[in-house]
Amino acid sequence: MRQILICLLLTFVSIKLFAQTITIKGYVKDTSGKAVSYVIVSFKQDTISQPLVYAITNDEGYFAISIKQEKLPGIIEINSINFNQKILKIGSDDTISNSPIVIHLQHRTTPLPDVIVKSEIPIYVRGDTTTFNVKAFKTGYEKNIGNLLSNMPGFEVLNNGKIKFNGKIIDKILIEGDDLMGRDYGELTNKLSPNGLKEIDVIDNYTDNENIISNFDNFSNRQVINLKYDSGYINKNFGNAELSGGLINRYESSVQTVSVFKNFKNFLNLNINNTGTLSKKTFQSQDERNDENDLLSFNNHFANGFKSLVNMPNDVAAKTNPLYENTTRSLLATSFFRPLKHFVVRNTLAISTDTFAQKLNSNIEFLLPPLILHTYNNQYINQHINGLKDQLSINYIRPNNQLVIIGRLMMNHYTLINTGNQFGSSYNENYNFKYNNIYVKSVYIHKFSNNAAVFGSFQFSSSQLPGNLQLWPANYFKHFPQSVNWWFMQQQESQRGNHSVASISYIKKVYNHKLSFQLLNETSSSSLFNSINITDSALYIHPFSNDSINHFHIHYNYFVGKIEDHWWYRKDINVVYGLKYYYIANRPTFSANCFKQNILTPYFSVVLKLSTHQNLSFTYNNEPVYPDINKVGTGYQFTDFNTITKGQDSMYISNAKSLNLNYSWLDFFDKKQLFLVGVLYRKQPQNFITFSNPGLTDNLIYNAVTDKYLQLYSVFIKLEKYYHNYQIKIAPQLSFSQIQLYTGIGSDLYQVKNISTRVGVATSIKFNKALIADCNFFQTFNRSGSAYNSINVFASYISSLDMGLSWKYKSVFSVNGKFSGNYNSSPNQPSRFSYMDELALMMNVKHNLTIGLNARNIFFTKYFSGNYVTATYSSFTQYTNFPRVVLLTVTYTW
Amino acid sequence: MYMIACEHLFTLSKNLLLFLLPLLGWQSIAAQQANQGYAVYQFLSANNHETIDFWFSSDAYVYNVRIKDFREGNDYKNRIITLSKQDSLAFEKVIDNINKKNQALPPKYVFGNLHTNFTLQNELNGDLQPVCVIDTLHFVKWEVLPDTLTINGLLCRKANGYFAGMQYIAWFVPSIPVAVAPMQLRGLPGLLVKLNNLNTHIQLMMTYLEWPAKKWVNATPCNAATATGRTVFNEQARIIQEQHRKNIRSSKTISDLLNSIHNQ
Questions:
Q1: Those residues with Cβ within 8 angstroms of residue A64's Cβ, 6 or more apart along the chain or in another chain
Q2: Is B191 a member of any domain?
Q3: With a cut of 0.90, is the ipTM above it?
Q4: Which domain holds residue B63?
Q5: This prediction's pTM
Q6: What is the DSSP string of A99-144?
Q7: Structural domain tally of chain B?
Q8: Is the CB of residue B152 less than 8 Å away from at least one CB of chain A?
Q9: Of B42, B89, B179, the CB nearest to A40
Q10: I need a labelling partner for A830 at 20 to 30 A (CA). Which of A85, A885, B41, B121 fits?
């Protein structure tokens, strides 16, 4: 009996469960009774909600939908593009028949509403090439391609105009496949307008088409950007001109033209303004990395940098250095030309002049117990910087041989006049330096077959840096005709350096192996003339030094690339390992000895493609580092090695080892994020020269350290996350580095540790592409500790905040506001604040004419530094007001 | 005699049926030209990027993969890296010739309709001769989810799909109630807008839509009765391609390379 009851109970429950799901079956037919197939039948709660279940009729027009009882009441909606929509109501009390229902549809009587959709794919990846669609990222506020790339995922634009993608530096910027500026593309980043750009390709594993033996390498770790223009901009000249003028006596004008033809490309930019934009950075740094595959670069195996007597002093450390009064004129013209079948010619010309004056107000309290002396200072700085650079290269390419000739001329002229008031008197400082540099290089390649070639190269450079420093009180001759208690100082220095490198290599490729034998001769000579004249003082230094380095080395490389030799070769893993052997013979002029050294250095790199989105690379490099006598880290200004004894000197060439591990996860499609982490470790044993100096009384043997870097640890982490198809971007970054180095001389040699941590976040939000807000905040902590002087731990803090808000109305009108603030604090230095703001209104009058109003430093105008204590000063404040600028701007684009 | 005639009549009818059957699905196209659409899809994978033109009606569709510039293909990049670059300037002219030849080739339209489980394609064999290829398809099983997303102004609905061990996520637009889609992707209760393959990370994205279509494609399907199966066709093509590749790889000079490309 009990069993019967249990069975009945289970049956009742199952019936109840089954009863909760109902199935609606039916046929869909047209008005003539003919079955209508492949129409969409869906069940919804009401007409506006989304369907809960759906079915598609088969060839006989039959459908079946299963609905849960609790979802009733609802509607059955039948949709087809050929028939009018039909809706059937199903109530919760309705009895659903087991027989199929028949639904009749009427042929569509009303036309379908038009829908036109046009969109572009923002990013797509094909093998080594990642392509960005410019329209998907352009906001209309970009003034140059640097601004545009900053908005694209994975890109980072550095201060000097260099670009990183996916944590890796971009080697070159190509325009429609052609290289105009080589590695020094910083100006292109900061000046080239993004008008007309259609796509930007990032090409990894790049091989140079202008190098006939670049295919000897199966794998290259180089990455380039290729700018591709709309078809309407090809075979045309285009550009824009901007003219601005306003308060107070301010003007800006710039003209830019770009030509993109198949055999000719040109970029020209002319800029004149007196609103505080400096152009001196054009000439300050050249990217010279040793890469013999890059025929257009100058290689320096052993750096021969000049030691400048002074760094051009500038107490104004504000973020963009707006100035009281200045005028800047700059011209940049870079061209690529293919005049004949086998010739490629490129030329870059850059000219700039900067003239500015600045006034700083300072309040100082001097502690002279029992007195406290107050003084107010007005300091005036006048500075002139003129620069000229021209680089011309000709590349003659034939099937079996190639000749490259490059010439470069750089001339810089700096003049700084600094005038200040102190204790009611004034003093003048006058610095005058000229820097001239000429490089010439020629390369010849002869290819015997697809597997063997000879590579010959000769390079010569000559540099000069004459300089003059004068310091004297302004009223010296007027008030003090006799030199009593006041001083006048003049320092002159002149540095000259010549450097030449000649090499010849034989390269042989055997399957995946590449062997090269290189014979290289490098000669370097430099001289320093330094004289200091100080009146009323017995101090007089007139040193002179000259050293030259001659060496020969035999360079033997052995590469093995582990790549599958398959037609569609996989690039899941690339391994390159090799061995270099150096034989170095060096004879410095201060020594009678010739130093000889044999160095065997292995290296390898592994690049793994873990998946379509993840890359892991690990490299180990081991290179000899040659001690540079000019970099002796002494506390004294002498560099006279001619007086040292010859018997106890020795010079060591050490190996600099570096390990670099990088991991990247770049997913544009699913996760929409970029994650980078990199670790770099570099160890370089200290290079030093030991000598004894009979000119000094202690007669000790000194170790003069010539290279300071000992151990460097560096870690960086970056995450970029995008939401809602790149409308919201959040990118936190963290980087950490620690350098341990030795400095000092002799018994004063001590270790210093510098630690730097940088943390920050960059955010950007776009609302329907019309309203964009971005905010970047970065904080850098620097800490320095000395084992010699452990009680002095120096630390500095640098904070920077940039905020911007932009709004656009239908490409007709736009408003753009920016604020940037900078705070810098270090011990024994005044803290420095600076704030700037900018507001711009633009209106499109015609499709190529824009009128705007630009106002800067209206609300935030201060540069302020102050309040630090030393043994002499009890407080020190310094401030200046940035000039307010209001400009009316007219821009014409063609 | 009578039996023989009947037999002939039967054979003729069978062939006629095989010929007419595919057209049954498409004959409504002409009568319903107002209810047709045109879309462009971008097919993206790690190594490849294709553009697909897709014309569709309520139950039938035609699509074509556009011919690309030779420089956009992996073929070009791999050849340039692995082979000699000694006359890259002259090679540009060769590429222009290749592009012109490719553009002159007839499009390889694929015809499908919801009434059948196969498609017909106007293919070209390794010797560039027209061949009708029939593909029997198996389709993705879709499960509609409640998620919605607006893509390019279209309110889309999400669906999960499973096929051959792979998982798909698709977004379709219910306001365009057609169940057609290229390849094996049909069966959604709306036009496909975006698709991700979660295993291979292949993506299909609609970048253009005309609804209704301004112009219908001028193409007719090939004869199914004389069609070759895909497997057989692929095998024949592979043999011819292998021979071409062998010729290119063994090229020692640029003129050998150009000859082998021309011959291909």
A1: A23, A24, A25, A26, A55
A2: no
A3: no
A4: 7-139+200-262
A5: 0.75
A6: SPEEEEEPBP-SPPPPEEEE---SEEEETTEEEEEHHHH--S--SS
A7: 1
A8: yes
A9: B179
A10: A885
